């Protein structure tokens, strides 16, 4: 679930931190920059593990800060495929069951990856496993806050780096059509930079209460 990843970055130390030990100042700046951030194709950064090498520091004209190339190792959250994890149900929707680990919320179990047969209860806004027994069918609800065991089956990284404004074609001079608010809302929709796709469609997976003796 957690990995130690080797990284290289140039760290800027402002003049008011020159009185501090270089290692301490660099460690603080690295954690400010990376902690709780997603690095594309790497994972969610948690905290600095150690600094392996500090190269020479430079001060550039017009900037009183020092710039140091740093080799370091960082702890990141990046589960491997098929890893089994335990989290809590955050909420359910037509798209599936959303799970949280407390520090990471972008985990989705789509409908086809639930225990089958499953249905979505519109009134309760929860997914239900229609568990069949010799005595008939029992509805097992996937309520918010319940602990759930799942398997990681896929991951999706999305580059959310800032981009320049898009240039839309100009409307004809005689057109009086104005842009709608809905278009602006959809353009501003926030997308997760790192999403895990999960499955519970196997014996032993799903709510922990289902399998407790």
From TrEMBL:
Domain called RNA polymerase Rpb7-like N-terminal: residue spans: 9-64
InterPro entries: NA-bd_OB-fold, RNA_pol_III_Rbc25, RNA_pol_Rpb7-like_N_sf, RNAP_E/RPC8, Rpb7-like, Rpb7-like_N
Biased composition (Low complexity): 173-185
Annotated region described as Disordered, given as residue ranges: 160-194
Gene Ontology cellular component list: RNA polymerase III complex
SUPFAM superfamilies cross-referenced by the UniProt entry: N-terminal, heterodimerisation domain of RBP7 (RpoE) (SSF88798), Nucleic acid-binding proteins (SSF50249)
GO BP, sorted A to Z: defense response to virus; innate immune response; transcription initiation at RNA polymerase III promoter
GO MF annotation list: DNA binding; DNA-directed RNA polymerase activity
Pfam families the UniProt entry points to: RNA_pol_Rbc25, SHS2_Rpb7-N
Keywords: Antiviral defense, DNA-directed RNA polymerase, Immunity, Innate immunity, Nucleus, Transcription
Domain (RNA polymerase III subunit Rpc25) ranges: 83-211
Annotated localization: Nucleus
Role played: DNA-dependent RNA polymerase which catalyzes the transcription of DNA into RNA using the four ribonucleoside triphosphates as substrates. DNA-dependent RNA polymerase catalyzes the transcription of DNA into RNA using the four ribonucleoside triphosphates as substrates. Specific peripheric component of RNA polymerase III (Pol III) which synthesizes small non-coding RNAs including 5S rRNA, snRNAs, tRNAs and miRNAs from at least 500 distinct genomic loci. With CRCP/RPC9 forms a mobile stalk that protrudes from Pol III core and functions primarily in transcription initiation. Pol III plays a key role in sensing and limiting infection by intracellular bacteria and DNA viruses.
Subunit structure, interactors included: Component of the RNA polymerase III complex consisting of 17 subunits: a ten-subunit horseshoe-shaped catalytic core composed of POLR3A/RPC1, POLR3B/RPC2, POLR1C/RPAC1, POLR1D/RPAC2, POLR3K/RPC10, POLR2E/RPABC1, POLR2F/RPABC2, POLR2H/RPABC3, POLR2K/RPABC4 and POLR2L/RPABC5; a mobile stalk composed of two subunits POLR3H/RPC8 and CRCP/RPC9, protruding from the core and functioning primarily in transcription initiation; and additional subunits homologous to general transcription factors of the RNA polymerase II machinery, POLR3C/RPC3-POLR3F/RPC6-POLR3G/RPC7 heterotrimer required for transcription initiation and POLR3D/RPC4-POLR3E/RPC5 heterodimer involved in both transcription initiation and termination.
NCBIfam families in UniProt: rpoE (TIGR00448)
Family, similarity comment: Belongs to the eukaryotic RPB7/RPC8 RNA polymerase subunit family.
Name of the protein this chain belongs to: DNA-directed RNA polymerase subunit
Taxonomic source organism: Pygocentrus nattereri
Protein's gene: POLR3H
């Amino acid at each position: 679930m957690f990995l130690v990843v080797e990284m290289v970055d140039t760290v800027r130390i402002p003049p008011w931190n020159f009185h501090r030990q270089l290692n301490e100042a660099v460690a603080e700046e690295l954690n400010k920059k990376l902690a709780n951030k997603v690095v594309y194709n790497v994972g969610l950064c948690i905290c600095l593990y150690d600094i392996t090498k500090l190269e020479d520091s430079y001060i550039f004209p017009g900037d009183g800060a020092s710039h140091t190339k740093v080799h370091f190792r960082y702890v990141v959250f990046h589960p491997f495929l098929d890893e089994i994890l335990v989290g809590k149900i955050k909420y359910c929707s037509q798209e599936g069951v959303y799970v949280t680990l407390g520090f990471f919320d972008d985990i989705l179990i789509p409908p086809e990856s639930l225990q089958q047969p499953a249905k979505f209860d519109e009134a309760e806004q929860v997914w239900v496993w229609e568990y069949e027994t010799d005595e008939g069918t029992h509805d097992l609800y996937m309520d918010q806050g319940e602990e759930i065991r799942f398997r990681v089956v896929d991951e999706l990284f999305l580059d959310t780096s800032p981009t320049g404004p898009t240039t839309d074609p100009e409307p004809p001079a005689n057109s009086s059509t104005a842009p709608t608010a809905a278009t602006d809302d959809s353009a501003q929709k926030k997308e997760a930079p790192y999403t895990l796709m999960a499955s519970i469609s196997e014996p032993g997976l799903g709510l922990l209460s289902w399998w407790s003796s």
